[in-house]
Amino acid sequence: MSDAIRTSTTDSTNLRTTATPASGAVRPEGEGVAAGSIPLDGIRVLELGTLLAGPLTGRFLGDFGAEVIKIEAPDKPDPLRGWGQVKDGQGLYWPIAARNKKLITLNLRVPEGQRVFLDLVSKADIVIENFRPGTMEKWNLGYERLAEVNPGLIMVRTSGFGQTGPYRERAGFGSVGEAMGGIRYVTGFPDRPPARVGVSIGDTLAALHATIGCLMALHERSRSGRGQVVDTALYEAVFSVMESVIPDYLLAGYIRERQGNILPGIAPSNIYLTKDDKYIVIGANADNVFRRLCQAMGEPELAEDPRYATHHARGERMEELDQRIEAWTRTLDAKDALAVLERHGVPSGLIYSAKDMVEDPQYQAREMIVPVQHPVYGTFPMPGIVPKLSRTPGQIRFPGGSAPGEHNDDVYRGLLGYSEEVLARLKEDGVI
């Protein structure tokens, strides 16, 4: 503890409150959510990350009840504030990325800020950071130092290449992780350069893996009482979803290349143009599903045709089979084709834009777009919480705030017990 800063002692357990859920909190219809029933209620998280992977991890934990305290430098707020389309001077992604988070400012580059951080660590369960490896150690805030203050602390560290290895000190954004993790190599069409997925999938995968690791460490701590480091590398998070590309190469001499909208040997599974110039996805590569597709097309005999009757046969004649299916889809508008496919139990769907999502009854029934009140925008359409828990669902308690340091008083006075005089001095010195 910092005796120079602490002026009173506060029982932190009395300060871990569950906020009233914002309008549209996700829960089963007709059921309330009692205080303390949300899964991570009572877990306190300090989020140091900027941009995407670190803040996404904090968001996932906050969605299920963790008290997330997001720390930004006083002179350099998170650049994520400007992401998305800008409306009324603010990026529209920020209210989503910062939802369910308390916002404070703290300068970790100065000794006084580091002492304040250690006070926060003493009352935390988890620290999230996604700086380049060595940054926290440079500030004398590596895991060994933090564990001296709080042996039960879990430190979630996300970086381009992990905390060890010859590349550990390299700068690494999600785009680099996508490239070196392998997903960019197989994304796109064979006659064009590698493409990217239309969202920051590398950061998202890293955040999901970091969240999983964090939850496993929390579970283990319940037995041992000890914390540990969760080390997630962006390239490894991407690599972990790359299916069998390595044994395909090492054992079969095959390197998967860009194939556009198909997967090698998997047919039919493609996009198909309809009469009204829309594209629908059809996945009918399993034998029984292909049989149902043939019935939907009015050609049941195709399912017994030796050219298409087996998985391998369809894979070998993928192009001609896709042309045959599209010849059928082009005779129908998308909604009519999908209705026929649905009746026959064939997995299919329209390729959705944001407009399609907003208008879709399934999105509405599952509360995947939740209206939440925002101080600047009024009703803000917030993406819903995934996954859905039947008994203790997550909550959107409040949207991401606007001003850096918005909750300084709540955290520094309420949680740490700092006096007005101490807060004034920290602000004057540029610590907060």
TrEMBL record:
Keyword Transferase assigned: yes
GO molecular function, one term: CoA-transferase activity
InterPro entries: CoA-transferase_III_domain, CoA-Trfase_fam_III, CoA-Trfase_III_dom3_sf, CoA-Trfase_III_dom_1_sf
Keywords tagged on the record: Transferase
Residue spans of biased composition, Low complexity class: 1-20
Taxonomic superkingdom: Bacteria
Region Disordered, residue ranges: 1-31
PANTHER family in alphabetical order: SUCCINATE--HYDROXYMETHYLGLUTARATE COA-TRANSFERASE
Protein name, UniProt field: Formyl-CoA transferase/succinyl-CoA---D-citramalate CoA-transferase
Organism: Alicyclobacillus macrosporangiidus
Upper lineage: Bacteria, Bacillati, Bacillota, Bacilli, Bacillales
